[in-house]
Write a structure and sequence with these properties.
Structural class of chain B: mainly beta
Number of strands of chain B: 12
Number of strands of chain A: 11
Helix content of chain B: under 10%
Mean pLDDT of chain B: 93
Radius of gyration of chain B: 14 Å
Distance between the termini of chain B: 41 Å
Number of helices of chain B: 0
Shape of chain A: globular
Strand content of chain A: over 45%
Helix content of chain A: under 10%
Largest sheet of chain A: 7 strands, mixed
Distance between the termini of chain A: 36 Å
Low-confidence stretches of chain B: none
Oligomer: heterodimer
C-alpha cells in the first residue's frame, strides 16, 4: 500500500490564483481530512469527510473547498489564494471517524502564496 | 471545549539524557483517545501511540514510555537515553466526539 499520497510537494502561487491540492489513499479508509500546519499552532482541521459524498467543515474552513466523489480521493481547493494561506497542508485518513481510529498522514504540501 | 496544551515549546538535551514532553488536555467527553505523533526534520507525521480514556496503564516501547493520568488530564511522553535521531517536533493530540485537536508541538533537539 502507498498509504496517503499528496501532490504537489511544493507550490508557489500568486495572490488570487486558484489551485487544487490532491490527496489519495489506498487503504479503503472512510474518513479523510485536511489540516494546515503553521508555526507554533500545531495542526488545525480545515475540512473532513466521513465517506464518499459527505464533507463537513473543521476549525478553519474559510477560503477552502472540498469534495469527495470517491472513497480514495479528497482534493482541497483554494479558490482565490491569499498570503494567509501560506502553510504546510497535510491530508490524513482513518478507517472511520470513531475515536479509536488512528489517522495516518500524507507527506504534506508546502504552499507559498506571494 | 476541546483543547490540547503542550507548554514546552522547545527542549534541548544532550544525548543519553532522559527527557519528558508534557501534554495536558481538556474535553467534556468521557470517551476519547489521546495520540502522540513525531515530525522529524523531513516533515512527515509519524504515529507513535494511541491511548483510550479508559486505560490508564502506562506503556513502554523500547526507549519510549507514556504516562496517562486522568486525574490531572495529562498524557506525558518520556524518552529514555535520548539519541540524536530523536530530534523532532512531537505533537500530542486528542480525538473525541468533536474530532481531532492537536497541541502546538514541542521541538526536541538532542545534541551529541
Amino acid at each position: 500500500n502507498a498509504g496517503v499520497t499528496q501532490t504537489p510537494k511544493f507550490q508557489v502561487l500568486k495572490t488570487g490564483q486558484s489551485m487544487t491540492l490532491q490527496c489519495a489513499q489506498d487503504m479503503n479508509h472512510e474518513y479523510m481530512s485536511w489540516y494546515r500546519q503553521d508555526p507554533g499552532m500545531g495542526l488545525r482541521l480545515i475540512h473532513y469527510s466521513v465517506g464518499a459524498g459527505i464533507t463537513d467543515q473543521g476549525e478553519v474552513p474559510n477560503g477552502y473547498n472540498v469534495s469527495r466523489s470517491t472513497t480514495e480521493d479528497f482534493p482541497l481547493r483554494l479558490l482565490s489564494a491569499a498570503p494567509s494561506q501560506t502553510s504546510v497542508y497535510f491530508c490524513a485518513s482513518s478507517r472511520d471517524r470513531l475515536y479509536q481510529e488512528t489517522q495516518y498522514f500524507g507527506p504534506g504540501t508546502r504552499l507559498l502564496v506571494l | 471545549a476541546q483543547k490540547v496544551t503542550q507548554a514546552q515549546t522547545e527542549i534541548s538535551v544532550v544525548e543519553k539524557e532522559d527527557v519528558t514532553l508534557d501534554c495536558v488536555y481538556e474535553t467534556r467527553d468521557t470517551t476519547y483517545y489521546l495520540f502522540w505523533y513525531k515530525q522529524p526534520p523531513s516533515g512527515e507525521l509519524v504515529f507513535l501511540i494511541r491511548r483510550n480514556s479508559f486505560d490508564e496503564q502506562n506503556e513502554i516501547s523500547g526507549r519510549y514510555s507514556w504516562n496517562f493520568q486522568k486525574s490531572t488530564s495529562s498524557f506525558n511522553f518520556t524518552i529514555t537515553a535520548s539519541q540524536v535521531v530523536d530530534s523532532a517536533v512531537y505533537f500530542c493530540a486528542l480525538r473525541d466526539n468533536n474530532d481531532m485537536r492537536f497541541g502546538a508541538g514541542t521541538r526536541l533537539t538532542v545534541k551529541p
